[in-house]
């Protein structure tokens, strides 16, 4: 499929950027957003700390060794959700065709918006300018005819830039890039491809398709098509989707349940928020796990009643997490809601006269308050267990002091 104009917008070091925006003392400083210094993982790393080798999804114990002078900040998910809502509100003012990938990135199909807002590059620039002005946050964008190329273009534009790949130039754009840029190519696959003399995306594109299929199996066609800029997937907005999901690929493989639950929680809340925005509920919760060797598994649970409640999704996803092998390193987790239906749900035989539940009313109230005052105005009990915003200064000093005293291993 060609003739489309797709923008991939990705917020730069999102969690860390929000922290630096909200606390001027953190601006220009090496900041790590993460959990427990020995058991947690890095959720975000500011660009100032990345030269030390710190990356998201890295174990916190390793991160603080690599960057002992970094300022460690506990995550504030309500602040990130609030910023995300406002970012997606800006997206919606340009196009209804928005496919969220995570809290901080999305694909936008702006093919039908060009007559209103100008060329795709102008639209991307306008979106980034509004995000900078209204939220004081940096964002990068990639523009191309297909999703895969737009995603790579935004990656190469970071930080705080944009890059356009004009129609018909995708193959040339991709040709010199390393094969690690291809979706689905991790360290082991990369090593295998290099042993075949395939070092760049152009090398893969130049190989005959039948040869790649013979050597790589079903994945051969996938890699060949991407290498040639072929990606027919459309941008699928929530309201048209058969499912609504959120997933994240870790920059480094993660091991153990404790390192995963925060991510699963964040994903469940994001899915629920998007479901309520789309006016749908779900009866099926699905957990997706991709291991270090790219083996992909899913676990599903059918609920007694349809829901759009984030805490319900989180509890069920955690129960599903306990049903998978957590002794193997994991590179991706995802939570999705399947079997979507109208927000009223399917009533049981004796439920026809039943009104909204307490949970429905609570979520409606939370959404209304968040819409008016921002999601930081109210949080659920489990998120309130995180350090309160009024205690943030003390928490930063405590974390930094612990590192300086060599107590990070406690």
Folded structure, characterized:
There is one protein chain. With 410 residues, this protein is of the alpha+beta class. It has helices at 14-22, 60-66, 77-92, 114-117, 120-135, 147-157, 170-174, 187-195, 201-206, 209-216, 218-227, 261-278, 310-321, 358-373, 381-384, 392-404; strands at 6-11, 31-34, 42-45, 71-73, 98-102, 105-109, 139-144, 162-164, 244-254, 280-291, 296-307, 330-342. The chain has a five-stranded mixed sheet. Strand 10 (280-291) and strand 11 (296-307) form a beta hairpin. Helix 3 (77-92) packs antiparallel against helix 5 (120-135), helix 10 (209-216) packs across helix 11 and helix 12 (261-278) runs antiparallel to helix 13. The longest helix has 18 residues, at 261-278. The relative contact order is 0.13. Residues 344-354 and 381-410 have low confidence and may be disordered.
């Amino acid at each position: 499929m060609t003739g489309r104009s797709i923008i991939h917008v990705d917020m730069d070091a999102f969690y860390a950027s929000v922290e630096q925006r909200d606390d001027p003392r953190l601006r220009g400083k090496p900041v790590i957003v993460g959990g427990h210094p020995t058991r947690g993982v890095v959720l975000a790393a500011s660009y100032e700390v990345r030269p030390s080798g710190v990356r998201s999804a890295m174990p916190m114990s390793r991160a603080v060794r690599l960057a002992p002078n970094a300022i460690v900040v506990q995550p504030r998910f309500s602040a990130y959700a609030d910023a995300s809502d406002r970012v997606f509100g800006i997206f919606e003012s340009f196009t209804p065709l928005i496919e969220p990938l995570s809290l901080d990135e999305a694909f936008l199909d702006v093919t039908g918006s060009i007559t209103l807002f100008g060329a795709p590059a102008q639209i991307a620039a306008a979106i980034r300018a509004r995000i900078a002005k209204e939220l004081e946050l940096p964002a990068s964008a990639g523009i191309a005819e297909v999703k895969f190329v737009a995603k790579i273009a935004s990656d190469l534009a970071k930080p705080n830039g944009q890059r356009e790949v004009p129609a018909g130039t995708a193959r040339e754009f991709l040709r010199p890039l390393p094969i690690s840029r291809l979706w689905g190519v991790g360290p082991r696959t990369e090593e295998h491809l290099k042993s075949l003399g395939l070092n760049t995306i152009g090398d893969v594109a130049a190989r005959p398709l039948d040869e790649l299929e013979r050597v790589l199996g079903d994945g051969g066609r996938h890699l060949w098509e991407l290498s040639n800029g072929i990606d027919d997937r459309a941008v699928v907005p929530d309201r048209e989707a058969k499912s609504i999901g959120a997933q994240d690929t870790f920059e480094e493989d993660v091991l153990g349940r404790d390192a995963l639950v925060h991510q699963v929680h964040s994903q469940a809340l994001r899915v629920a928020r998007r479901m309520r925005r789309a006016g749908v509920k779900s009866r099926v919760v699905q957990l997706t796990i991709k291991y270090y060797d790219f083996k992909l598994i899913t676990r599903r649970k059918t609920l007694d009643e349809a829901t759009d409640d984030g805490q319900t999704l989180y509890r069920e996803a955690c129960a599903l997490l306990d049903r998978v092998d957590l002794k193997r390193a994991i590179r991706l987790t995802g939570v999705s809601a399947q079997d979507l239906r109208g927000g009223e749900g399917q009533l049981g035989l004796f439920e026809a006269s039943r009104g909204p539940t307490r949970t429905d009313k609570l979520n409606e109230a939370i959404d209304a308050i968040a819409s008016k005052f921002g999601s930081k105005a109210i949080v659920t009990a489990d998120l309130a267990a995180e350090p309160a915003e009024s205690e943030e200064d003390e928490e930063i000093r405590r974390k930094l002091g612990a590192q300086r005293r060599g107590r990070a291993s406690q």
